[in-house]
Design goal:
This protein is of the alpha+beta class and 133 residues long. It has 3 helices and 6 strands, in the order αβββαβαββ.
């Protein structure tokens, strides 16, 4: 990604100020004071206690436990601060690292229930009320 930190921060600020059904967060590396990626909650529906989670991590920060920490924090935030009970994540069928991460956190793959036009994606869901995070 060729964006600098200020461009990413501006994008996140614009998203968060324009939508009250989405929240984007940057993942910082404190030691290097660099951004490692982003994580978001979107399609937030407090009435239905539902949201989707999305994330990306730059390649040089992958396989270091960073996204596990970020996902744990965002799931706790969604449940405790926003009252979200049902959360979904979409990932490409070839993104095995993302699938393993979601399964590690108790997400279950939904088969054949997709309304996604791109059949290359898989849907995972988790009930935050039933399970510990």
């Amino acid at each position: 990604m060729n964006k600098n930190l200020s461009e990413i921060e501006e994008f996140i600020e614009n998203i968060n100020s324009d939508f009250n059904n989405a929240m984007f967060f940057k993942i910082n590396m404190l030691e290097e004071n660099e951004i490692a990626g982003t994580i978001c909650l979107w399609k937030i529906n407090r009435g239905n206690k539902y949201a989707e989670v999305g994330y990306e991590l730059f390649p040089e920060y992958q396989k270091k436990g960073i996204m596990s920490s970020a996902l744990k924090a965002i799931l706790n935030f969604a449940n405790k601060e926003l009252g979200i009970e049902h959360i979904e994540a979409y990932t490409h069928k070839e993104n095995l690292n993302s699938q393993k991460l979601l399964e590690k956190f108790g997400f279950e793959k939904i088969n054949g229930k997709s309304d996604i036009k791109n059949s290359n994606n898989l849907i995972f869901k988790k009930n935050l009320k039933k399970a510990s995070i």
